[in-house]
Amino acid sequence: MAAHMKICTVVVLLFFVCFTSSVLLKSKKIQKNREVSKFSTSDYNYKTEYLTQKIDHFGFVNQDTYQQRYLIADQYWDPNGGPIFLYTGNEGDITLFCNNTGFMWDIAPEFKAMLIFAEHRYYGTSIPYGQTAFKDPKKMNFLTSEQALADYAVLIKHIKSSIPGSSQSKVIAFGGSYGGMLAAWFRMKYPNVVQGSLAASAPIWTFRKDADCDAFDRTVTGTFRKSSSACVDNIKALWKTLNTTASQASGLSKLSEIFHLCKPLKSADDVTTLKNWIVSALVYLAMVDYPYPSKFLAPLPAWPVKETCRPISTPLNGDNLIIGTAKAMNVFYNYTGSTSCFDIGSGDIPNLGISGWDYQSCTEMVAPSCSNGKSDMFEKSAWDFKEYTNGCLKNWKVKPDINWIETQYWGKNLSAASNIIFSNGLLDPWSSGGVLKSQSDSVVAILIPNGAHHLDLRGSNKADPVDVVSARNQEKKYIASWLKSP
User: Average pLDDT by consecutive 10-residue portion of the chain (486 residues)?
Assistant: First the structure.
């Protein structure tokens, strides 16, 4: 999930993303460019399997089932005590996460581990009741993090009972963004099943009634400011410039032409959609500000924030500011140069479960989001829970519970937890809701100053900053120690 729409949600991606984030989790609408993102594939070898899961793990009346997809790779696994590395799937097709979590593949031979990537219910192909479920609130009622965690626990039980040699294998959970939240919560809720968890870019403290609602925007702004202060100043001035131009005679036509829009702007609502489109790019660029070219959300160059800021890195105003911004948008929306025009209201990023996450954000995953318009580069916007609730009632016929995540998953009191790593790249906007300080000797925080959204979960690359290499080495040491523990 104006520049900030109150009801829609941004997927935290996860790698992540919702991603994640979908995008993954913020009250901003993510629009997709005309150029279809080419999600990276790999040479990773795995088998696709399915497990019959109960739709309701916590009741005894509904005995319906669904087929949960999971991917398994055992070519590195030592059946004489080798561990199981489980990726707790988040809000999208599990193959996307499998092919973009290179860290697990990199270290599997070293630890002689079996790899399992479990798909989250209601995403990818693991959809209880099929696609019609998204039109029936009663069938969507089983889309919760608690049910998903129970799926993972049952899956591990199935693996250990059906694969010879795995009954005594210790399990380490991995996840990024919403998947990282699930990895942490999996250890907290099922310590009998999982020995430890690496929760990368997991903003577990975003979902609190007293959360700092403008922290996300301030972090996006800080990431852009690191590349260019003038870039931030220009973006901050852009919104008023767009409004002024739109109000002028032929202003809508001018904006349509400068931004190469497929459909001309015709109203104030269309200008709002244009702003959303720009904001979406800015948010995603901060999330995936990786030090090398990537194709995770879209084909992008190394350090894409820096490239985006190039056309607007000197003070600009008026038409020059708009023209510079249009050039900047090409980095995210048209880096390959193959798109002739932009459909700014065309839909969502493919392979990510926008509908599923929109529902989750209207039930338990409530992330307050606002902008003060001063300490960040976005238009001022308020957080209105009543308005948010009305949107959820309209779209899904459900009322969000803003207190449930804190009640269910302990809030900031993690003193009883153990064996969890919370890693955060400080370029990543979602770090604003993450655990940035160690909570105990066994609930530790690892910070990556030059890292974007769960960069540490991506595969090793020669362009990796020293701090992410160091983070991965620390993570391996903790994992090794967990595996040696009783």
Answer: 33 35 32 32 85 98 97 97 96 93 98 98 96 93 98 98 97 97 98 98 88 93 97 98 96 97 96 96 96 90 98 97 98 94 73 79 94 92 94 95 94 95 98 97 97 97 98 98 94
Q: How far is CA 209 from CA 42, 404, 406, 457, in A?
A: 41, 10, 9, 29
User: Bridge partners of 115?
Assistant: 73, 85
Do 115 and 76 form a contact (C-beta atoms < 8 A)?
Answer: yes
Q: Which amino acid is at 345?
A: G
Residue 180, burial from CB neighbour count under 10 angstroms (0-12, 13-18, 19+): buried
Q: How far apart are CA 326 and CA 338, in angstroms?
A: 16
Spacing of C-alpha 458 from chain mean position? 14
Neighbour tally for 158: CB within 10 Å: 16
pTM of the model: 0.91
**Phi-psi map region of 383: left, alpha, beta (phi>0 left; psi -120 to 50 alpha):** beta
Residues labelled catalytic: 177, 428, 453
What is the Cα–Cα distance from 367 to 144, expressed in whole angstroms?
A: 15
Question: Tokens in use for 116?
Answer: 């399992």
- Using DSSP's 3-state secondary structure scheme, residue 343 falls into coil
- At residue 72, φ and ψ (nearest 5 deg) are -135, 135
Cα separation, 105 vs 334, in Å, equals 31
3-state secondary structure of 118: strand
First CA to last CA across the chain, in angstroms?
Answer: 42
List the structure tokens of 47. 């088998």
